[in-house]
Design a protein that fits this description.
Helix content: 40-55%
CATH architecture of the largest domain: 2-Layer Sandwich
Strand content: 15-25%
CATH class of the largest domain: Alpha Beta
Low-confidence stretches: 1-29
Number of domains: 4
Mean pLDDT: 93
Shape: globular
Radius of gyration: 30 Å
Number of strands: 25
CATH topology of the largest domain: Cytochrome Bc1 Complex, Chain A, domain 1
Structural class: alpha+beta
Length: 982
């Protein structure tokens, strides 16, 4: 790690101007050294109000090469992180090499002149407990990494060289080209990608959005290193970059180090290509037309989108966002409830999307249609235009603008400390979208209520300017495709909207069932902090009886006005079977449908809810501003106690929705199918998509009604109340919960507790093989590492960090087996497992499995070289640091207390025990554990192999000699010499 003083010394040396030495001039000039950067005044006017972040400091600077930097110094940061956003993306690809920007992104990780080792950066980040990634968008490419504070500056120096002197080593081009091709192949059957590619193909041919953005071996195979270097030099300039730094280092240190490492980034002289600024993304053939797209999965997704005129994009008043908010705001008489009541949709999403930055904005409505919705699509769209006409007629009232602004401001100003990597990722994606001086105010808040601007935006939302797209099987849509998209092969047909539909939508009347929302009852009004009523920093028991237990945790280390509530509801109706799992899912579907107006309003007021089946329990989680959290809990549990029976039509919609989801499981990536099967085998509380699909086809309406009536007859309930709530709040809420759920007790002795599979030690290894119609192959290997102990968990944790990087480097980077290559450690019901997985479009599943085993053998032979004592100690320190800092906000800490209270026997010292076990772990025990678990002597191995379709399969075919001779022929030596034989 570079020391601050030495770095500053070097910086001053680099920045010292040359002085001409003569007899009349002193040897040392007293002139002040020029600053390597200038300060940018912070005009955002959005101070942080969360007391947890009171020591956080922010600075904005501009280096002399034009690079703008946002720096955050936070003494409470768990890790350090950085991101660089480059104002060049796939829209800047040369015509000759589609995918150039994406390929350049991949290549920058593979060495620079200062750090030529192609894997050194990845290994360093991994050993420091961090993450790294990058992505290429239309108008930008964003790189990010996180790591422990110790080692951050050295890693930052390494990172900076991506943009100063990348190698573009010819020997790495073919290797990374294969990775890009594998990445493209895994996306070919992704319906969202296919829909986007059709959108691009139908778009404005003069706009660069039409380009094939990801690239593949066909478009990039002939690319010379010089072309990559030239493109990098022409598009990666300091004056077209933004850097974000986050660390616990002092602000002045961050400024100096940023200047030291990034001052060498060259300034770009070439003017940017402004083609994208002059042209619309969409074309006349899309506007007022419907694109019918044949999906891979069984889905019925309808989208309505409008490209806003340039004058209405990047609007300080956020008028488009205000309109989307008004259309979406949860209440009992809105567009969603109208479409749902008529059984036309499963889901509705409304929003404003940026395509290539704020100058290309779209208002979009995405409807997940029911089977009935497919057949009455014109009616579903009619209701959308009725909702828009309602807003045109009344305008968007002031209170909705104020509500949106208020929640946006509260969410920003009371933000909690988040994971350093996610922070770098989100900042990297947003920092280029406004002037650094005002960032992030313009993105966060509407500048003013602008009824005239809102009216202008609404006037653009007409049927004949709407781009409609329906992704549905032709058997349902009734439209057969007649075209095929070039790169993904998506089949589609573009047709003008029928005149009678256009007339119906243009002349629609106001619908009394679709109204403008009133004030939000869940908007927080009380943000004061409650006092600490107990001296304990751990949860305290509120109540415990035969019907359940409740804990309260003030979590005084977090001072934001937030709360987190966890509720676990057990019932004898929830059994470890596929049928019970499906019945519970249908019940929760009906419950959340009935609760949707409240849940949606609460979410938009900063109070999120999650209700799902987890470990044979209904798990309800509420998190966000604490003021109305008890009200939301009371609303939910009261509705559960008085839930109206679903009609037969509603039941059929729920069944169709889940049946479609379960059937689509067989069309997921083979790797996700393999993971789904593995989890269903390892854990009794999990069932596979195939098992659920079979089960749902046997469930009758009467059986569902009976299940819904019985599910809360006998219950056992656990709860955790955490955050800015008083002990009295927790006790009062718990009494309400008990009043509703304690009609009859489900005794603990009768609980269905999850179990985990323990593989036999004398038999094996085993493999489960399946075939799939999806494209690609996958292999997952689960190694059973035995029952949990603190010592073995410590060894597994350290070994897992090392293996994650090594496996990725070997299987993905060196052997080029696939784009996804992952290793991960799991603890399931006090049993330890190590998972290794690859998704491949070039290798057979058995081949992948053999490569895993060969990798293990070679790794173990050099184990003490790969992980010597020094690296072991560094990895140990990384794991200890992670355990000490990973619970960085109330939601994370409440998640920990929830786990410990109800899964670890209320042992709230568990994390300290884990840390102590890591500190005490010897190198000898670590190497013994790694060798014992990874060697072939450990036969407790279960592989799940999925074989799908490949575009160019390479696999040995079993053949008998007569057949071989029948399809081949013998040639003479002379024929070979004369070149007759090839």
């Amino acid at each position: 790690m570079l020391k601050f003083l030495s770095s500053l010394s070097l910086l001053l040396t680099l920045q010292t101007p040359e002085v001409s030495m003569t007899k009349t001039q002193p040897a040392i000039s007293n002139a002040p050294l020029p600053m390597p950067y200038e300060e940018i005044s912070d005009l955002s006017g959005l101070p942080l109000l969360n007391p947890d972040l009171k020591e956080r400091q922010t600075a904005k600077i501009r280096l002399r090469n034009g690079l703008e930097i946002l720096l955050i110094s936070d003494p409470g940061a768990d890790q350090s992180s950085a991101s660089v956003a480059v104002d060049a993306g796939s829209w800047n690809d040369p015509e000759k090499y589609p995918g150039m920007a994406h390929f350049c992104e991949h290549m920058l990780f593979l060495g620079s002149k200062k750090y030529p080792d192609a894997i050194d950066f990845m290994k360093q980040v991994s050993d420091l407990g961090g993450l790294t990634n990058a992505y290429t968008a239309s108008d930008r490419t964003v790189y990010m990494f996180s790591c422990k504070h110790t080692g951050f500056l050295e890693t930052l120096d390494h990172f900076s060289r991506f943009f100063i002197d990348p190698m573009f080593n010819p020997s790495h081009i073919s290797r990374e080209l294969h990775a890009v091709d594998q990445e493209h192949s895994k996306n070919i059957e992704n319906d969202r990608w296919r829909e986007y590619m059709v959108f691009k193909e139908l778009g404005n041919p003069k706009h660069p959005n039409r380009k094939f953005s990801t690239g593949n071996s066909q478009t990039l195979s002939g690319i010379p290193p010089e072309a990559l270097k030239e493109w990098h030099q022409n598009h990666y300039g300091a004056n077209r970059m933004h850097l974000f730094l986050y660390s616990n280092l002092p602000l002045e240190t961050l400024k100096q180090e940023a200047a030291l490492y990034f001052s060498e980034v060259p300034k770009l002289i070439l003017a940017p290509d402004l083609t994208s600024e002059k042209e619309q993304v969409t074309s006349p053939k899309q506007r007022g037309a419907i694109a019918y797209i044949k999906p891979i999965q069984n889905k019925q997704t309808l989208s309505l989108s409008w490209e806003l005129p340039r004058s209405l994009c990047d609007d300080e008043s956020h008028s488009a966002e205000v309109i989307a908010y008004a259309l979406e705001r949860g209440q009992s008489h809105n567009l969603y409830e109208k479409l749902k009541t008529e059984q036309l949709i499963d889901h509705l999403i409304i929003g404003v999307d940026d395509l290539g930055g704020k100058n290309h904005q779209f208002i979009s409505l995405t409807l997940e249609l029911t089977p009935k919705g497919i057949h009455h699509m014109q009616t579903a769209i009619l209701h959308c235009f009725e909702a828009i006409k309602g807003l045109k007629n009344t305008g968007v009232p002031l209170h909705l603008f104020q509500e949106l602004n208020a929640v946006s401001a509260l969410t920003y100003q009371y933000q909690t400390r988040e994971d350093a990597f996610r922070m770098a990722e989100s900042m990297g994606g947003a920092i280029s979208d406004e002037s650094l001086a005002t960032f992030p105010r313009r993105q966060t808040l509407g500048s003013s209520y602008a009824p005239e601007k809102i009216a202008q935006v609404l006037q653009t939302l007409t049927p004949d300017t709407c781009c409609l797209a329906l992704s549905a099987p032709p058997a349902l849509s009734g439209v057969d495709p007649d075209q095929k998209e070039q790169w993904f092969g998506a089949e589609y047909k573009i047709s003008p909207i029928p005149d009678k539909w256009l007339a119906l939508w243009k002349n629609c009347e106001l619908n009394p069932d679709i109204q403008v929302a009133g004030p939000n009852p869940f908007l927080p009004t009380k943000l004061a902090l409650v006092s600490q009523e107990t001296t304990s920093h751990e949860p305290v028991l509120v109540a415990k009886s035969e019907s359940g237990a409740a804990y309260y945790a003030r979590c005084p280390e977090f001072s934001a006005p937030e709360a987190v509530i966890h509720l676990h509801i057990r019932s004898p109706e929830m059994a470890p079977t596929a049928k019970s799992s499906v019945l519970t899912a249908l019940y929760l579907d009906h419950l959340t449908d009935v609760l949707h107006p409240a849940l949606s309003a609460a979410k938009l007021a900063g109070l999120s809810t999650r209700i799902d089946l987890e470990k044979l329990k209904i798990h309800l989680q509420i998190s966000g501003f604490n003021d109305k959290a008890p009200l939301l809990l009371q609303t939910i549990v009261s509705q559960m106690a008085d839930l109206p029976s679903a009609t037969k039509e509603q039941f059929e919609i729920y069944v169709a929705r889940h049946e479609k989801m379960f059937a689509n499981g067989a069309k997921n990536l083979p790797l996700w199918q393999a993971k789904d099967l593995l989890e269903s085998v390892l854990m009794t509380d999990r069932t596979s998509f195939a098992e659920k699909l079979s089960a749902i086809q046997t469930i009758s309406y009467d059986e569902f009604l009976q299940f819904s009536q019985k599910i809360l007859e006998k219950t056992y309930v656990d709860a955790l109340f955490a955050g800015n709530l008083t002990l009295m709040d927790a006790q009062s809420s718990w009494i309400d919960v008990q009043h509703i759920f304690s009609k009859a007790i489900f005794p603990k002795a009768q609980h269905n507790n999850p179990k985990v599979l323990a593989l036999p030690s004398e038999q094996g290894p085993f493999a489960l093989s399946r075939f799939t119609e999806a494209q690609g192959n996958a292999a997952i290997l689960a190694i059973d590492e035995g029952t949990f102990s603190l010592e073995n968990k410590a060894a597994q944790e350290i070994f897992g960090v090392a293996m994650k990087e090594a496996f990725f480097n070997e299987l993905r980077t060196k052997q080029k087996t696939g784009y996804i290559a992952k290793a991960d450690c799991l603890e399931i019901e006090d049993r330890l497992f190590h998972l290794f997985m690859v998704q491949s479009n070039s290798h057979q599943p058995e081949d992948l499995l053999y490569r895993y085993e060969l990798f293990f053998e070679e790794y173990l032979q050099t184990l003490q070289t790969e992980i010597d004592l020094d690296r072991f100690n560094n990895l140990k320190a990384t794991c200890i640091h992670s355990l000490k800092t990973r619970f960085r906000n109330l939601k994370d800490k409440a998640g920990l207390w929830n786990l410990l209270a109800f899964e670890k026997g209320a042992d709230f010292t568990y994390v300290n025990k884990r840390i102590a076990a890591l500190e005490e772990l010897s190198y000898e025990h670590f190497t013994e554990f790694a060798t014992e678990k990874l060697t072939r002597n450990n036969r407790k191995r279960l592989a799940v192999l999925f074989e799908g379709r490949l575009n160019a399969p390479f696999a040995y075919e079993t053949i008998e000699t007569p057949k071989l001779l029948e399809i081949s022929r013998y040639e003479t030596k002379s024929a070979i010499a004369e070149g007759v034989v090839k």
